[in-house]
Amino acid sequence: MAHHHEPVDHTEHPTAHAHDDGAIHIHVVPVSLLAGIFIVLMVFTVLTYAVTKVDFGYQINLFVAITIAVIKGGLVCLYFMHLRWDNPFNTLCLLAALLFVGLFIVIASLDSGQYHNLREAYANTDITTGAK
Amino acid sequence: MSTAADLAHADDPHAHGNPAHLAHHFDTPAQQFTTNKLGMWTFLATEVLMFGGLFCAYSVYRYNHPQVYLWAHNALDPFWGMVNTIVLLASSFTMAWGVRAAQLNQRGLLQIMLTLTFLGGVVFMCVKAVEYKAKWQHFLFPGEFNSLNAEFKGRDGKSPSEARAITIEEVEHEAHLRSGAEPASAEGGEHAAPATETEVKPVQHTQNSADVKSGAAEHAAGTAPTEASKEPPIALQAIGTVVTAPDLGNESAAIVPPTMMASGTNSKVDEKVGHHLTTYSELEPLDKSQLQTFFSIYFMMTGLHGIHVLVGMGLMVWLFLRASAGQFTSQYFAPVDLVGLYWHLVDLIWIFLFPLLYLIH
Question: What ipTM goes with this model?
């Protein structure tokens, strides 16, 4: 993945001079980096499509698909959405939202799991007709 | 409003008068910009939470009915899902480039990038329209209007069970054509000559009749090999492999032992190398009566996402007009940046919708 660890190219900063002059100190992302991220995203998209054709079993296929989606989403957040260079508080906003969505899903699933025995009992019941 | 920042800037030579774009309640453009960003990220957090409700519904339902997803996703074409993913990622790329152009005062380039991003939205919605149309042709509408619903009577005067049988056959037939996969049952290969509609239609079946033929279909499809010997599946051989036990009313569940698929693994899937298509006849009766819920979830998730794409396209037009008026500079490009964040979030949500809806294996 395209990682740029060297300092940001200051020629890309039209307003990079005094420290706290009240002007906007923007970070301009080089086109080459954006294009690199785009290509990586394309590769992952084709990969996640192709990997469906391979049978690793239900659970692992699901895990692989979600993992690829998380990597793609992370790249979009970090580079396209500038979070890598942004105020960390913005990242915190996003992570907090994701955390609560995660809690929501996990707790709802835990609760749903409590009724699995009922589901087994009804597995052969057509609930629309009540026929057994 | 007098703040610490205010005092700090009291003798700042760069505290230029008041730029037109600086709202009076902000001290500096930088303060305004960071506040704008924080506000936008707060909004995006609420967006994540809103979609989170749908993702939760998806997760709980899939956790409880994995077989429903395995069957129902046959109605979606992963290829078009991938095309739309690529289109949306490409438009995200042009959007990010557009933000860069705005930052660098490249007005013409900004207009080009906004146009390309808008066109990405157009292509995405066109593909979505084609996909929705395919669902509608099979009467796979959301909720009670879905032909898999036991009460559905909306298909050309067909009875609910007939409408259901036709839809199931259409969906499975298309899925077979798409994947070229082996059919589920042991007598593989016969699907080259798929049964016609008349063969499928359970004409002699009445609702709630525990019909032996249907039971035989269940057995021969491999869900209950031990019981299969008891019931000679004569009728099934004639019907072939594409055809499934179509009549909602006669599940003959008493004959078929529970297949215990709650863990989500299907023995048929594990045996085969390559893409296996879950057929309707492999489903448990409870799952058979729940298929329409997948389409409700599908339409709600992609529909809400599609509305976001439309809103984003409207915002592109707005940005284009403002860019044409020369309103954006390297000191004032927040609207481009914030709309960009919105567009990327819409892309982000699709990145997860694509594998969750289309790539179920």
Answer: 0.80
